[in-house]
């Protein structure tokens, strides 16, 4: 099968994008996604997304982790697929599309490389020891620490993701250092089973957890730095519920090509 693909990245979280409105890409076989995402033998990416038609929405997003399995919601992927939809002429500057965790509204800059993506409302944040655990479309564990720059995110993230509590379903593990003006975040992602340069649902989970932790109420804007760049989270918090949650950041097309599998 010959596949025409596009490569996108959002703050260094990188994805293969395929226009599958004609349903020509058959995804019954995990191995195809695994092979395409492989950084040595394929194109290389943290995940693969299909843009498909949907009767009630501008388009539907299907997201696979680089291990070949259908993932839960991917925030940076969501931002990238909005940029891709604009590139294809499927949308203009605003959209309502469908993802695995439900409908999402997003708006995109005129240049097509900055996307504000609305995330699901959140009303439950649990604790695991000192860490926060919540689902922002994907499950996340959030632990605060110092000297995050030098921390072994791979070994420690992997150990938490595979402990007795999380082993079966898996979890994305986020470490956060409060730098005063911004939060510095590093994430070990399930489904990639490695540290990635950014995780959109992860930094969203971090921003909400830190607001609860610091007893912040009202309209909150949280600047975030990750290994691959800068992101911003905006939301309203009344002490119980997080609403109008937006993940804002860059989404860039890197290249396009053909590959046969
Ligand atoms: N990188 C993604 C998260 C992918 C979710 C995946 N790792 C899973 O838990 O299935 C993001 O930007 O939100």
Identify the notable features of this structure and list them briefly:
Diaminopimelate Epimerase, Chain A, domain 1, binds 2,6-diaminopimelic acid, 5-stranded mixed sheet, 261 residues, 4 helices, alpha+beta
The description of the largest β-sheet is: 12 strands, mixed
CATH topology of the largest domain: Diaminopimelate Epimerase, Chain A, domain 1
Q: How far is the N terminus from the C terminus?
A: 6 Å
What is the β-strand count? 17
Q: Give the % helix.
A: 10-25%
Query: Low-confidence parts, pLDDT < 50 over ≥5 residues?
Result: none
Pfam family, one: DAP_epimerase
Organism: Pedobacter panaciterrae
Pathway: Amino-acid biosynthesis; L-lysine biosynthesis via DAP pathway; DL-2,6-diaminopimelate from LL-2,6-diaminopimelate: step 1/1
Function: Catalyzes the stereoinversion of LL-2,6-diaminopimelate (L,L-DAP) to meso-diaminopimelate (meso-DAP), a precursor of L-lysine and an essential component of the bacterial peptidoglycan.
